[in-house]
Design brief:
The chain is α/β, with parallel strands linked by helices and 385 residues long. Helices cover 34% and strands 19% of the residues.
């Protein structure tokens, strides 16, 4: 097959968000009808048995399927013919790998964007398959699946809740040069696919990963910018090493904290934005507060300010809600019930940054992070991803 300029691969998991899946595929068809030559969308769709839909000339089917999206302007019916497959566990990274391999065969391109569509849970992963015991793809499995497929995506995008964590941005920094995600839960409709990739409507060969990501953020802002509670950001992976280095310096600066200083840090965590999962706190806001709080010494204040600066360098497009979020959250539980066992999966982050020491001291413990009772949390909500 001829090599195009951009192929957007959308991976959709079996979920209670089925109505939104139908709407989104129709929006993708309209988007493709407006694309310039050289741009395409492929989709893997694991339909939900609770509500399945027909496609093209095919009667409603409730297994899995994959397709190159066909151009169409009717938003009321899916025109694309799917290659219908047996039932798949779309929370299995091997299934994602197979879809990526297939995408590169049928629509090879100079650049790829990968969209992960479903519920998201931050540290606990993404793409929770309702019909496979809520099996999900962890960030570590995602990295391996993409690598094993041989794909080098130019942009990694989440149409899913709560994936704007500094930990996952860091762990996936070598996977794609650009990552796009929300700190907060997002509304069930998710992306407006009619406009999300509008940059591909003219000269796709000239569209850089940063341009594509900015376009997605702009589309999301237009769609949700007035609701006061949505967040969305595009991050340069090249900036994540500096962010991690700055956070490590802050963690190191807390070594000699007094009980009063730890108490003050816990208080600040309670004052800044926390998200639907309360163990995720806005990183930029927290560090900004620390940098201007006289309770802390000059070293800690300076280190916190450096984190704020590094975030500003890495986040190159951002939708900020009324809370003025920074674009990156960080794991900071304040009670044992908020702890997540999945934090132990982030081996690079944990070994290099040492954030677990900060969390544990703030919780009144010494040592490194331990698994807690909130393992497996994810954003299961009828109208949220």
């Amino acid at each position: 097959n001829p090599v195009g300029d951009w192929t957007i691969a959308v991976y959709m998991t079996s979920t209670d968000l089925a109505d939104f899946a139908f709407d989104d595929i129709n929006e993708m068809e309209l988007a493709v009808s407006r694309f310039a030559p050289g741009a395409a969308i492929t989709v893997f769709w694991d339909q939900w048995r609770g509500k399945s839909f027909p496609t093209g000339s095919q009667a409603a089917w409730d297994t899995a399927g994959r397709a190159v999206i066909a151009p169409d302007t009717n938003l009321g019916a899916i025109a694309t013919e799917f290659q219908i497959l047996p039932e798949q566990n779309s929370g299995d990274p091997a299934v994602l790998k197979g879809f990526l391999t297939w995408t590169m065969e049928v629509r090879p391109a100079t650049r790829y964007g990968l969209v992960l569509w479903d519920h998201g849970g931050g540290l606990s992963g993404v793409n929770f398959d309702d019909e496979s015991g809520y099996d999900s793809i962890t960030v570590q499995e995602l990295r391996k699946a993409i690598g094993d497929a041989g794909m080098s995506p130019s942009a990694l995008l989440y149409d899913a809740c709560l994936m704007g964590n500094v930990e996952q941005f860091y762990e996936l920094r070598a996977v794609a040069p650009v990552q796009v995600a929300s700190e907060e839960v997002i509304s069930g409709p998710g992306y407006d696919y009619k406009t999300a990739f509008a940059t591909l409507q003219s000269t796709p060969a000239a569209v850089t990963p940063e341009m594509l990501a900015r376009g997605v953020v702009d589309s999301f802002t237009t769609q949700y910018g007035t609701d006061g509670a949505s967040t969305f950001a595009a991050v340069s992976s090249a900036g994540m090493t500096a962010v991690a280095t700055a956070i490590k310096a802050f963690a190191d600066s807390t070594t000699g904290f007094s009980d009063a200083q730890w108490s003050r840090l816990r208080a600040l965590v309670g004052q800044v934005t926390r998200f639907e999962f309360p163990q995720y706190v806005d990183l930029g806001q927290l560090m900004e507060r620390v940098s201007t709080t006289s309770t802390f010494g000059a070293d800690a204040r300076s280190a916190a300010a450096a984190v704020v600066s590094a975030i500003g360098e890495a986040v190159f497009a951002r939708m900020s809600d009324e809370r003025q979020t920074s674009g990156m959250s960080i794991y900071f539980p304040t009670t044992a019930s908020q702890e997540m066992a999945e934090v132990s999966l982030y081996t690079e982050w944990n070994s290099i940054v040492g954030w677990s020491r900060v969390v544990n001291r703030a919780l009144g413990r010494a040592g490194n992070a331990r698994g807690g009772g909130a393992g497996g949390l994810w954003a299961f909500a009828e109208r949220r991803k």
